[in-house]
Amino acid sequence: MKLTVLGAGTMVPEKGYSPSAYLLEAGEKKMLLDCGWLSLSALTALGISANDISEVFITHFHTDHFGGLMPLIHARFVAELVYGEKSAPLRVYGPSGITQKMRQLKDIFWPEEDQSYDYGIHEGPGKWTLDGVRAVSFKVEHTRWSPSVGYRIEHGGAAVAYTGDSAPKQDRKFIGNLKGADLLIMEAAAATEEAGSHITAKRAVEWAIEAKAAKLLLSHTGKISRALAEEAAASAAFPVLVAKDLETLTINE
Ligand SMILES: [Zn+2]
Q1: 64 CA distance to ligand 1 centroid (A)?
Q2: b/e map of 6-38 (b: 16 or more CB within 10 Å)?
Q3: Measured in angstroms, how far is the CA atom of residue 10 from the centroid of ligand 1?
Q4: For residue 22, which phi and psi values (nearest 5 degrees)?
Q5: I need a surface site. Which of 26, 101, 157, 167 has the fewest CB within 10 A?
Q6: How far is the CA of 63 from the centre of ligand 1 (A)?
Q7: What is the pLDDT of residues 11-49, one digit of tens each?
Q8: How far apart are the CA of 30 and the centre of ligand 1, in A?
Q9: In this structure, are residues 54 and 88 in contact, taking their beta carbons and an 8 Å threshold?
Q10: For the chain, give me the number of helices (H) and strands (E)?
Q11: Closest CA to 57 of 158, 1, 127
Q12: Distance 192 CA to ligand 1 centre (A)
């Protein structure tokens, strides 16, 4: 598998650090882990069309993770309508309530009642097998205002786990979903954990060690937390990287 960081930043974009999104390629398949509101621009800059994406895995409903999904779907609809471009079927995965949220977004941003785009939508936690890719979504605590899930994606014997945004307190099963991941992607948005809805790089490293992950990618860093992530990466006894937009990582299968 190959991972390209499309958005290594937070809700507040900076040069090189866009809101959350990752392109995960497994064989011929192109999937998105989260779809922040600059995702379509990032894909376009890489020469990848919205039509090329076959799965989108959404962790929760904040715009820095979810805001790019309706634009991506609307772009696919217009590409077909105006240019006759056909795309592979699209499957969307998200936490419970995503079907209703997509309906609400359609009403707001795309009010034409006679137009629609057909895509599959799957609410998690759950498990799916998709053309040789195994996808598991699991519950993650983040904020009481939005249900959140993380994902474990396996292909060719390799596993990538992505937790999205996360509170310092998680349930007993949380670490089990990350066990032995070849690549673990975790947020490190917090400089302190007082707010209770994000974690520090230090905690992400501790959880990665507990899960025995082979490599940790610290992401979703901001102007203050990035230096702490870099410190944590430099002092870790296993491979820890700090994400930046458009970096790629290969996950050996
Ligand atoms: Zn976020």
Answers
A1: 5
A2: bbbbbbebeeebbbbbbbbbbeebbbbbbbbbb
A3: 6
A4: -140, 135
A5: 157
A6: 8
A7: 999 999 999 999 999 999 999 999 999 999 999 999 999
A8: 22
A9: yes
A10: 6, 14
A11: 127
A12: 15
- Domain coordinates of the chain in residue numbers? 2-250
Query: Which region, left, alpha or beta, applies to residue 219 given φ > 0 means left and ψ of -120 to 50 means alpha?
Result: beta
Residue whose entry in the numeric block shows the structure tokens 């079907």:
99
CB 80 within 8 A of CB 168: no
Residue 87 one-letter amino acid:
S
Sign for the CA dihedral angle at 173, 174, 175, 177 comes to positive
DSSP, collapsed to helix, strand or coil, labels residue 214 as: coil
Q: What are the tens digits of pLDDT across the range 167-184?
A: 999 999 999 999 999 999
Euclidean distance between the first and the last CA atom of the chain, given in angstroms as a whole number:
7
Cis peptide before 71, with omega less than 30 degrees from 0?
no
Per CATH, the homologous superfamily of domain 2-250 is: Ribonuclease Z/Hydroxyacylglutathione hydrolase-like (3.60.15.10)
In this model, does residue 108 exceed pLDDT 90?
yes
| Residue the block writes with tokens 């990665």 | 208
**Are residues 176 and 212 in contact, defined by beta-carbon separation less than 8 angstroms?**
no
Closest CA to 162 of 202, 120, 119, 215: 215
CA of 149 to the centre of ligand 1 (A): 13
Q: What angle do CA 204, 69, 132 make, to 5 degrees?
A: 70
Which two tokens mark 48? Answer: 């990848």
Whether the pTM exceeds 0.85: the reply is yes
Residue 87 pLDDT: 87
